[in-house]
C-alpha cells in the first residue's frame, strides 16, 4: 500500500508492496508468493506483481496454492488477476472462492496480480507460477507448461493424488506433486516441466521422496511431470541391471520345522519371490552393496520389504557410492552438510521411491 508503481516494457517484471514474499520472475517463467509463505501471511499488507510476456505470446498461470482466510466476497483477504488488454478480471479468490482449475490460460501477454490482506487469523497465502505460451526452442500449448517451484513445497498444506508412474490428479498441489515425483529436490526447488493429459479412473497412492500421496477418483485431466535428463546421460528412466550383490552379513535362519533358509545378498533384487536379503540379527552398521558392472548414472532407488509372508522391511537408510569399490562417499543430496537419511518402508508390501538429486555417478552403491 502506497508503494510506487512503475510502467516498463517487456521483458522486465516488477513487484511492489509490503505483502510480497519469495519472488523469482524471468522473461518466460517464474514464481511468486505472499509474504511468509507457507507460514501465515501478515495482516494489512498488499502486493502487486505485473507479469509481461514477449509480444505475440500469452501467459499461462498455475495456482500452486491459494489459502486465504474465508470471508464474504473475499473482503478480508483476496487474490485478483487483471487482464488489462481484454479488460477482464479473474477472482477475487480466497478460501471459500478458489480457482476453478489449477491452470489458467489467458489470451493476454500482460497480467497484473493483486494480493491484499486485512485482519485475519489463518491462511498460508498464495503460491503462483507462470509460463509464456512460447519458450525459446520449445512450444508450450494449453496442455504443456514449464513453471518454477520454490524450495520448501514439501511441507505446505494441500493434498496430492497419484504417483510418478500414473501421473497426478489435476487438483493436486502442483509443486508438492513435483517433489513427490522426484523431478526437483525440496531443498532447492527448480524448474518443472509438465503436461496435462486425459485423466484416469483411479489414482493409486504411493510413498515417494518423503511424501505420501492419496488414492483419488476420476479427474478430467492429470499432471505428468517430465524428468530432465543430461545430454551425456540420456537414459534417466531405465532400470539398471545389478551385476552382483554383496552384504556385510546375512541371516542363516532355521525355522520351527528345522529347515534352513539363507537370506543372502543375491536375494535383494526387487521382485524376488519369497524371502529377501536380511543382515545377521543383532549386527551393527549392516550394509547391502550393489555392483552395477560399470560406472552408471543412478537417479533414484526403489525399496520394498521382504514379502507378505515375511513381514520385514527397512524404515530408513543412508546411501554411499564408490567408483572403485574401495573409496566411498556418503550421499548428502543438494548441498547438504550431513549424510542424507532416506525414508524407507512402513510395511513389507508397498514400494517406496527416492530420487537422487543430483544423480550419483558410480559403479558401486551401498
UniProtKB/TrEMBL annotation:
It holds the Pfam family CUB. GO terms for cellular component: plasma membrane. Residues 147-223 form the LCCL domain. Disulfide bonds join 20-47. Its main location: membrane. Residues 20-133 form the CUB domain. Residues 229-366 form the F5/8 type C domain. It is found in: Membrane. InterPro entries: CUB_dom, FA58C, Galactose-bd-like_sf, LCCL, LCCL_sf, Neuropilin_MCO_CoagFactor, Sperma_CUB_dom_sf. Gene3D superfamilies: Galactose-binding domain-like (2.60.120.260), LCCL-like domain (2.170.130.20), Spermadhesin, CUB domain (2.60.120.290). One of its GO terms (molecular function) is signaling receptor activity. Keywords: Disulfide bond, Membrane, Phosphoprotein, Transmembrane, Transmembrane helix. It is a single-pass type I membrane protein. It comes from the Eukaryota. PANTHER family: DISCOIDIN, CUB AND LCCL DOMAIN CONTAINING 1, F5/8 TYPE C DOMAIN-CONTAINING PROTEIN. This is DCBD1 protein. It comes from Smutsornis africanus (Double-banded courser).
Amino acid at each position: 500500500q502506497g508503494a510506487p508503481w512503475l510502467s516498463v516494457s517487456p521483458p522486465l517484471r516488477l513487484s511492489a508492496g509490503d505483502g510480497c514474499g519469495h519472488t523469482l520472475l524471468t522473461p518466460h517463467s517464474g514464481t511468486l508468493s505472499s509474504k511468509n509463505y507457507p507460514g501465515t501471511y501478515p495482516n494489512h499488507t498488499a502486493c502487486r506483481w505485473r507479469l509481461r510476456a514477449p509480444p505475440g505470446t500469452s501467459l499461462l498461470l498455475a495456482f500452486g496454492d491459494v489459502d486465504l482466510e474465508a470471508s464474504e466476497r473475499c473482503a478480508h483477504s483476496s487474490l485478483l488477476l487483471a487482464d488489462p488488454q481484454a479488460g477482464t478480471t479473474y477472482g477475487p479468490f480466497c478460501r471459500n472462492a478458489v480457482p476453478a482449475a489449477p491452470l489458467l490460460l489467458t489470451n493476454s501477454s500482460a497480467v497484473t496480480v493483486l494480493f491484499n490482506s486485512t485482519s485475519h487469523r489463518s491462511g498460508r497465502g498464495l503460491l503462483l507460477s507462470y509460463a509464456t505460451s512460447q519458450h525459446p526452442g520449445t512450444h508450450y500449448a494449453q496442455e504443456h507448461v514449464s513453471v518454477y517451484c520454490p524450495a520448501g513445497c514439501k511441507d505446505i498444506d494441500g493434498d496430492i493424488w497419484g504417483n510418478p508412474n500414473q501421473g497426478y490428479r489435476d487438483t493436486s498441489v502442483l509443486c508438492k506433486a513435483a517433489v513427490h515425483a522426484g523431478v526437483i529436490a525440496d531443498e532447492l526447488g527448480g524448474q518443472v516441466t509438465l503436461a496435462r493429459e486425459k485423466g484416469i479412473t483411479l489414482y493409486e497412492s504411493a510413498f515417494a521422496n518423503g511424501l505420501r500421496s492419496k488414492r483419488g477418483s476420476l479427474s478430467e485431466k492429470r499432471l505428468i511431470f517430465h524428468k530432465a535428463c543430461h545430454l551425456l546421460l540420456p537414459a534417466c528412466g531405465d532400470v539398471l541391471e545389478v551385476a552382483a550383490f554383496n552384504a556385510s552379513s546375512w541371516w542363516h535362519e532355521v525355522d520351527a520345522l528345522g529347515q534352513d533358509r539363507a537370506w543372502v545378498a543375491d536375494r535383494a533384487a526387487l521382485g524376488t519371490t519369497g524371502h529377501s536379503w536380511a543382515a545377521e540379527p543383532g549386527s551393527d552398521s549392516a550394509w547391502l552393496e550393489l555392483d552395477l558392472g560399470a560406472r552408471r548414472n543412478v537417479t533414484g532407488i526403489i525399496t520394498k520389504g521382504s514379502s507378505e509372508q515375511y513381514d520385514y522391511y527397512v524404515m530408513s537408510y543412508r546411501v554411499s557410492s564408490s567408483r572403485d569399490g574401495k573409496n566411498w562417499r556418503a550421499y548428502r543430496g543438494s548441498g547438504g552438510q550431513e549424510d542424507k537419511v532416506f525414508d524407507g518402508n512402513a510395511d513389507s508390501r508397498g514400494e517406496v521411491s527416492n530420487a537422487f538429486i543430483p544423480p550419483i555417478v558410480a559403479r558401486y552403491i551401498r
